[in-house]
Each structure stands twice: as structure tokens, then as C-alpha cells.
Specification:
Helices cover about 15% and strands about 30% of the residues. The chain is an alpha+beta fold.
Length: about 120
């Protein structure tokens, strides 16, 4: 399993999330300004849910995604002009340094429910 990492910044602080596959399970390694914390998980799905929630919390508390490794996109953005509104579900996963990304809109999406059928 290839190691993947996400680097977040807030002011002078840096936080790195790394996924590790260990013999008996998985771990999310959190590195904050040189301090390392290891959070173990039995299943990769549990790690993914935890990491997604953590990323959302980081973004809502002023952290910005600066980089992710390895870069998994193979091609550059097809658009020659940025989107007017950002309709990506996880916009915070685009690094700030990426010039092909439009800044996220301020509000949340409206809650749309399907009409119940009788």
C-alpha cells in the first residue's frame, strides 16, 4: 500500500495526516509541528470515516489543505475558465497551491429531500 499524506496549514502551524498500513490493521499518523500521534484502526473504512470527519473539522476551524501526496489526478483540469460556483462535494480536498481550483463558496448546500410517495 502506497503511503498517502495530506498537509494542512493555519498561520505558522502545520499538520500532516499520513495513512499507514500496519501488520494488524491501519493507522492514521498525525504530525503537528514535530509532535507525532498514532491513531490505530482495525479496518480501513473506519480510518476513512475518521479522516474525513477530521478534515472537515480542520477546514471549519481555519486550516487550509496545502498539499497531498501522491498526486492522484493524472491530467490537469479540462476547464479553461474556473467554475462560477463550486459544486464539488469535498472542495476542501483541493490544495490551495493548485491553480486549477476555485475557492469554495461560503454557505452550505440546501437540504433537498425527495417527495414521499403515498
Amino acid at each position: 500500500m502506497q503511503q498517502r499524506s495530506w498537509t494542512f496549514r493555519r498561520g505558522d502551524d502545520q499538520l500532516v495526516l499520513e495513512r499507514h498500513h500496519e501488520g494488524s490493521g491501519f493507522a492514521l499518523v498525525v504530525i503537528t509541528n514535530g509532535t507525532v500521534s498514532n491513531i490505530p484502526f482495525q479496518e480501513e473504512s473506519a480510518l476513512t470515516v475518521f479522516q474525513t470527519d477530521m478534515e472537515e473539522l480542520l477546514v471549519h476551524t481555519g486550516w487550509t489543505l496545502q498539499a497531498c501526496q501522491p498526486e492522484r489526478r493524472r491530467k490537469r483540469d479540462r476547464r479553461s475558465f474556473p467554475r462560477v460556483t463550486n459544486d464539488r462535494r469535498r472542495w476542501w480536498t483541493d490544495p490551495v497551491g493548485d491553480t486549477s481550483v476555485v475557492a469554495a463558496r461560503g454557505g452550505k448546500r440546501p437540504n433537498r429531500r425527495r417527495a414521499d410517495k403515498d
